């Protein structure tokens, strides 16, 4: 038998946090009950630590993205005949294909930058070098930026994607015990984070799953964690799900009546409306040449 002094053994896990300096979990070695308590407490502490570490990784990625955008937009020299278009990260693949097609046909150069809409809008206002922004019209309208015109690109759709190794039949299944981690983009900064929050709040679902939620900066970050299996399911856009269909288990389309419609448009920032390079690109966006690309990524 351990002595009285040995009954209580403390393990402290240090976690940097502004609200508290450390989180403690205690281990007791007295009988079978406390042996069970060891397992439960350690598991809880381990999960909390993993979540915190993921949040710190996301924060570092956000800072890195902001630094890259500032460097790109403020530090680079604009080449004659070159324009810059900023886009929500969830539309990276279709935009890159559109740009490649335009550059091949015109011989002109387009520079794209990607991120969450909140960061892009801030950097566009700061740099004054972004000609066009592609994103949800709601975000563009409330951005505080002055747009001269908008060009409709298509409609966005929210889906719930799931990792390989599990099968999901309905969004209603996610409160179940088999789903432990749910990823979603930040509702204050990303188009599909807002859509996911609206959908979950349209019913009692948010109350049932809020403890399972892990918040990420962008759709691609949610997708990356799905691919590695670090989350079970994640709210992303149909465009990204179609691009990654071989790397994930599958996806379920979320009822469009549960969130505000996502209308994808390209806004022309005032001051660039008469720029010949900007005008040439926006004219290209209106052609039927783009229809196969937009259909391929579920935007039509």
Describe the structure.
This protein has 300 residues and is an alpha/beta fold. The protein has three domains: 4-59, no CATH class; 79-156 and 262-296, 3-Layer(aba) Sandwich (D-Maltodextrin-Binding Protein, domain 2), CATH 3.40.190.10; 158-258, D-Maltodextrin-Binding Protein, domain 2 (3-Layer(aba) Sandwich), CATH 3.40.190.10. The chain has ten helices and twelve strands. It has helices at 32-75, 92-106, 117-127, 137-141, 191-201, 205-209, 219-228, 238-243, 276-285, 291-296; strands at 8-13, 23-28, 82-88, 109-115, 132-136, 147-156, 158-162, 182-185, 213-216, 233-237, 250-253, 262-269. The protein has a five-stranded mixed sheet with strand order 4-3-5-12-6. The relative contact order is 0.15.
Question: Which structural traits does this protein have?
Answer:
disordered N terminus; D-Maltodextrin-Binding Protein, domain 2; elongated; 24% strand; single chain; 300 residues; 5-stranded mixed beta sheet
Order of helices and strands: EEHEHEHEHEEEHHEHEHEEHH
The name of the CATH topology of the largest domain is D-Maltodextrin-Binding Protein, domain 2
Rg, Å, rounded = 23 Å
Low-pLDDT parts are 1-49, 58-80
Largest sheet: 5 strands, mixed
Structural class: alpha/beta
- Separation of termini? 72 Å
Mean pLDDT: 81
State the strand order across the main sheet.
4-3-5-12-6
CATH class of the largest domain: Alpha Beta
SS field, number of helical segments: 10
**Approximately what portion of the residues adopt beta-strand conformation?**
15-25%
CATH architecture tag of the largest domain: 3-Layer(aba) Sandwich
The overall strand count is 12
Query: What best-fitting shape do the alpha-carbon axes yield?
Result: elongated
Q: What is the helix fraction of residues, given as a range? A: 40-55%
The CATH H-level homologous superfamily of the largest domain: Periplasmic binding protein-like II
Q: How many domain modules?
A: 3
């Amino acid at each position: 038998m351990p002595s009285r002094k040995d009954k209580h053994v403390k393990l402290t896990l240090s976690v940097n946090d502004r609200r508290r300096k450390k989180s403690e979990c205690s281990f007791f070695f007295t009988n079978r009950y406390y042996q069970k308590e060891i397992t439960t407490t350690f598991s809880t502490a381990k999960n909390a630590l993993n979540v915190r570490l993921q949040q710190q990784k996301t924060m570092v990625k956000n800072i890195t993205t902001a630094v890259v955008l500032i460097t790109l937009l403020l530090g680079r020299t604009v080449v004659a005949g070159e324009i810059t278009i900023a886009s929500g990260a969830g539309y990276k693949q279709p935009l890159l294909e559109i740009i490649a097609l335009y550059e091949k046909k015109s011989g002109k150069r387009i520079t794209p930058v990607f991120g969450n809409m909140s960061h892009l809008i801030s950097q566009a206002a700061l740099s004054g070098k972004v000609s066009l922004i592609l994103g949800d019209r709601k975000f563009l309208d409330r951005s505080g930026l002055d747009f001269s015109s908008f060009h409709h690109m298509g409609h966005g759709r929210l889906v719930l994607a799931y990792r390989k190794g599990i099968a999901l039949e309905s969004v209603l299944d996610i409160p179940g015990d088999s789903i432990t981690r749910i990823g979603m983009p930040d509702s204050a900064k990303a188009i599909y984070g807002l859509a996911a929050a609206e959908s979950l709040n349209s019913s009692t679902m948010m109350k049932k799953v809020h403890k399972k939620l892990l918040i990420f900066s962008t759709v691609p970050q949610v997708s990356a964690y799905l691919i590695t299996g670090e989350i079970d399911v994640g709210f992303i856009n149909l465009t990204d799900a179609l691009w990654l269909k071989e790397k994930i288990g599958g996806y379920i389309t979320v009822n469009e009546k549960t969130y505000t419609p996502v209308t994808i448009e390209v806004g022309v920032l005032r001051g660039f409306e008469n720029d010949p390079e900007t005008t040439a690109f926006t004219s290209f966006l209106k052609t039927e040449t783009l229809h196969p690309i937009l259909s391929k990524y579920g935007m039509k």
